[in-house]
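Researcher: Please translate sequence to structure tokens.
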Amino acid sequence: MENSKITGAEAMLISLQKEGVDTIFGYPGGTIMPLYDKLFDYQQQIRHILVRHEQGAVHAAQGYSRATGKTGVCFATAGPGATNLVTGIADAMMDSTPLVCITAQVGYDKLGSNFFQEADTISITIPLTKWSYQITSASEITTIMSKAFYIARSGRPGPVLISFTKNAQTELTRFSYTPYKPQQIKGKMLPEIPSVSISEAVNMINNSLMPLIISGQGVLISGASDKCMELSQKGNIPIITTLLGISSVPTNYILHGGFAGMHGSLTANHMIQKSDLLIAIGMRFSDRFTGEIKWKVDMVEDLHGVYPLFGFSESVIVEDERVFCTPGGADTNVVALNRFTGEIIWVSKGAGERPGYNAPQIIHLKDRNILVNFTAYEM
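Model: Translation complete:
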């Protein structure tokens, strides 16, 4: 294969195979037909799912990626085909979903001539992708595709768009595929966490009465679910999640309190308000979680963290309510009581089977009563 010449379209399909792609979502059109013609010869190796609209292709690729953990791939033709992908590309960027979107473009000799269905796909998608690139020669395909998949998967995952001209699909080239390796930069790639900050964090956890872990999608992306649960189990610390972090913790985990935020459970949101220490892992305090860009609270302590969306480090959550703990009837429970009123604020369950949903109970608040269901926690 490396000694013989193949078309750019075939080089594209073999490159996809090299990256482990076996499923593609797409909708054909005139400019991308050379790729689809060659795809017919690879239908035993690559499954193509024909959608009815390009937006369906990109959203299907998103769902496929999130369900399988693989990089989603979609095809679209030039002009309207490519622009129909934009909503899904933007969504994938927001949700950190690895995608490689492959779109066609008019021939190299026709670029900039307002040719039929020509659109500046690269300029349109640059703000919405991790990388957008236009291939104009078949000889570029293998190098660019290797880099595209590396960028889509690495760091915070996201979408990459590769547009390649019609002439690049039909030109002949020798196939040679080498996995992309980023340029090595001298020195340490990641900053070290100061040991003093680690010690301060440990002391804050040990001295807190109602610590709470917030697990976000970053825990899933980095494969840190086991470590997150290990911290929870070691300190008997409840975990709640963000919407995108729901799968980071098994829902039947005994210390799981549900997901919080604007659309989260009442229990999880109350746990945030009552916690005296929040341990946020792999989440970014988005407005869907906080309700606002800034979260106005009285800060008790802070490890001088950086909260770029907030603008001020004072804008993170801690409710200044002093509590103390006492055994709660059973040896496996620890109950947090309000220091001044004696009101039960928190019940931390120990090891054992997680109880099922109980009958509705009433939370007595200062200004109203709320009827809720509880699972592992009472407040």
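Researcher: Any highlights?
Model: The domain at 196-372 is CATH 3.40.50 (Rossmann fold).
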